[in-house]
Design goal:
The chain is built from 11 helices and 6 strands. By secondary structure, it is α/β, with parallel strands linked by helices.
Length: 243
């Protein structure tokens, strides 16, 4: 009998790559286009990972709700302008490529679940030569965003992987909450945009502090099997049941 398929589902911004400066720059440009002053960079960082319109609504609670989409469009235009000018810097965090190598060497499938648009995700993966390494790419522009479990459910449906053979890796509480809502394990990373204490409180199963440590944490969670997990595996991949 062949071993079960296993999946490591990575967040992108703040986990694979450091995109905070491009995001803050684009938000600042969008705010200026609508005469909204300047956003608080720390608050912008906290919203990274959420769907764009939802993040803007939280950042601008007093703005007419009909304007959120307009500000979002201005943000997208600003981000695209950075890319066209060659001013878009989204460096990969140290040790991440080593972790991807280690997981692939163990036969673990790789995927992404991100608040980025598909266009943005495709661009950053291509820039770092990662496109072919991920077998499932889930973005919030084709369904509910984090912390809703939909992206995890879609990834499981696409890959045929079971709940107990899946681990979400992310830097924000939205990632950890998504994993918990989907009933899969999670690894929180300390180099991103939410504090370690917040990740722990959200329920992360492991916390790591270096990129190369992710593979070991993921493999330890995948190897942690008990009778209840065996029962879940026999049920097959979980489809989207909502929160």
């Amino acid at each position: 009998m062949s071993p079960p398929l296993r999946l490591a589902l990575f967040d992108c911004d703040g986990t694979l790559v450091d995109s905070q400066f491009a995001i803050i720059d684009s938000m600042t440009t969008a705010w200026a286009a609508h005469g909204l002053g300047e956003p608080d960079p720390l608050e912008v960082r906290r919203m990274v990972g959420l769907p764009l319109v939802q993040a803007i609504a939280l950042l601008l609670p007093d703005l007419d709700s009909g304007k959120y989409a307009e500000v979002a469009d201005s943000y997208k235009d600003a981000f695209a302008a950075l890319r066209r000018k060659g001013d878009l810097h989204e460096p990969m965090f140290p040790g991440i490529r080593d972790t991807l190598d280690a997981l692939e060497a163990e036969g673990v499938l790789l995927g992404v679940a991100t608040g980025k648009s598909r266009r943005g995700l495709d661009a950053v993966l291509a820039h770092h030569g990662l496109t072919e390494r991920f077998v499932t790419l889930q973005t919030s522009d084709i369904g509910p965003g984090k912390p809703h479990p939909d992206m995890v459910h879609r990834a499981l449906a696409e890959t045929g992987v079971n709940l107990v053979d899946t681990v979400v890796i992310g830097d924000t509480t939205y990632d950890i909450q998504m994993a918990r809502n989907a009933r899969v394990a999670s690894v929180g990373v300390s180099w991103g945009y939410h504090a370690v204490a917040e990740l722990e409180k959200a329920g992360a199963d492991r916390i790591v502090h270096r990129g190369r440590e992710v593979a070991e944490a993921v493999l330890s969670l995948l190897d942690k099997t008990n009778e209840s997990e065996g029962l879940l595996r026999n049920e097959g991949p979980l489809r989207n049941e909502g929160l």
